[in-house]
Amino acid sequence: MENNYCVIMGGGIGSRFWPFSRENYPKQFLDFFGSGRTLLQMTFDRFIKIIPLENIYVVTNVAYEALVKAQLPELPDQQILLEPTRLNTAPCVAYAAYHIRARDPEANIVVAPTDHLIIKEDVFLNDVKKGLEFVKHHDALVTLGIKPSRPETGYGYIQSSEQTQGEFTKVKTFTEKPNLEMAKVFVQSGEFFWNSGLFLWNVNTILKAFERYMPDITLRFNMGLDKFNTPNERKFINEQYPYCRNISVDYGIMEKADNVYMLCVDFGWADVGTWGSLYDMAEKNENGNVIISKGETMLYESERNVIAIDDPKRLTVIQGIDNCIIAESGNVLLICRMGDEQRIKQFVADAQMKYGKEFK
Amino acid sequence: MENNYCVIMGGGIGSRFWPFSRENYPKQFLDFFGSGRTLLQMTFDRFIKIIPLENIYVVTNVAYEALVKAQLPELPDQQILLEPTRLNTAPCVAYAAYHIRARDPEANIVVAPTDHLIIKEDVFLNDVKKGLEFVKHHDALVTLGIKPSRPETGYGYIQSSEQTQGEFTKVKTFTEKPNLEMAKVFVQSGEFFWNSGLFLWNVNTILKAFERYMPDITLRFNMGLDKFNTPNERKFINEQYPYCRNISVDYGIMEKADNVYMLCVDFGWADVGTWGSLYDMAEKNENGNVIISKGETMLYESERNVIAIDDPKRLTVIQGIDNCIIAESGNVLLICRMGDEQRIKQFVADAQMKYGKEFK
User: Fold this and answer.
1) Cα gap A320→A2, rounded to integer Å
2) A231: cis peptide before it, omega within 30°?
3) A310 touches chain B (CB under 8 A)
4) Which residues are CB-contacts of B78 (< 8 A; sequence separation ≥ 6)?
5) Nearest to B335 among A19, A326, A347 (CB)
6) Taking chain B (360 residues) in consecutive chunks of 10 residues, what is each chunk's mean pLDDT?
7) What pTM value is reported for the model?
8) Does B296 contact A at CB distance below 8 Å?
9) Residue B337: which of A319, A331, A337 has the nearest Cβ?
10) Which of B178, B163, B176 is CA-nearest to residue B260?
11) B299-302: long-range contacts, CB 8 A cutoff, minimum separation 24
């Protein structure tokens, strides 16, 4: 238990949730479900039940330091690891691993994104404990795989093999988001599972994997070996982190490593990565509309929309609109087809090009 | 010229333009076209070219007194006639006629609503002068009829006869908004013209018509004959006006009278009564969208919408939406199919029932 660590990755911008998720206030800091707790807080609340507080880390961008402190006041400052640059997950995972190994060379780590919803918390916690126990005794990189319920094209997939170690199955391949046809084949085959983005490993296993598959990262971080978990770490990271390769741990490590295992889990998981995934999991009214507005809403002949209006004093009247995202937050109103939500990133980029950072 | 008067009717709520037109700030007080002048001001600006300032009246609801004074500071206070109750046009027309006759028993009056756009102003002014000259010499109620360019179902129609007096044609019937089939027949026949809502008459002709077709109004206003155009008028109107019948001058007088003449006009007229009519007349971008937003707007794969966003600091991003009204003003956002805009009145009523006057 005291060797178990949790790393919550909370540095993303979540631009697919624009305009709710904004560069200066990304989705992990929002209370999407009106539960009173933000995505970051919900993630923390889950892990604090099985990981000692002093072993919980949040890695985030330096811009969000104040937000993390405000939302998790119980978390000691030195457990917030600050990225000076916005990079993908590989450097983030490496940084956390170097920091934790300097504290505890026997550490077993669960790495978790903040953008998912977990319904069956007891099942989830039990699976995480199982995973931490497994990586303590096996030189394995573990991922939690979700049995797919539909041919979702928005998720990555994990292909399992027949080789097992108890409940853990050796992974054959990681696959990026497939097209619909391929997704259907995946689901039918029974071999493929959704990649939850939750990983578990012993600190030495993951650092060995970096040495092998991303030696550039290892070389760079080894330059500061004596600085991790000391007052000099921050300066070292600020100087060296920006030079790390901007790729995901999935792509940089998991797809290449030969010691990846999957635990097939069923804890009511859903990705909160996009408006569409939010739509899928949220409560719907009798016409299939998801209304997460703080103000008043009146709907006429409108079906299967997500309506997210942030202004509590606003009345929104919608008539004759189907399958749309209608989202207003701050100084931005977005109306967009549900199926085309992957273009939101483009809208944000276009807005920045035209108007600068004002609406980002 | 000095016997010529103009009565601008500016007391409506314009709820078909909700949420731009609000009960406390109706459409006639809005600068719809971004021209720098409101509909009321544009109407005033037209008439001041041919009617002496001291002969121009605005009839409005008492609630809008301050707005009229603010928007037409040159108009003397005693030329603002205040209705204590919101009623249709018949009592309004009668009130103005009684007031003006007390000042000038020879007055020729042009009555004009504020909710239209007139493109060829010189033609318009010439037609008004012609009409005022005609009613000076003929015991006739005159209406300006527009040659229809399409089978519009949102307008009233005037049926002309073969009987003429110079350029003026005797009117056979007034017809309420027809259905599409009937409108097509109307247009094809060549006999039918759009009712512009612009009327001209000598004050004695219209008051004789009231005596004959709405004697209840005549009886009531005759009780205060000695009060019109005196300091006692206001008190009398406040007491008696609310008891007047709530019907239009079209229905109460024009449809029934046998001395109604039409001048067929072609001064580039368009009704600004609804979002759809605004769409028809406003400038469109290459995809047929009308954008009258004060803030920034970005459109993707969206055609034939009216987008009216009142907040100058707002960015609006719209993707994959066609034929819709997207209007935001004050605390209300409305998204509605263009063809279903006649339902906006219902939305306003529903909102009032649910939330009180907050969003009206």
Assistant:
1) 57
2) no
3) no
4) none
5) A326
6) 92 82 86 83 96 97 95 97 94 98 97 90 96 97 93 89 95 90 93 95 98 97 96 96 94 95 91 81 90 89 93 91 92 90 86 83
7) 0.76
8) yes
9) A319
10) B163
11) B300/A343, B300/A347
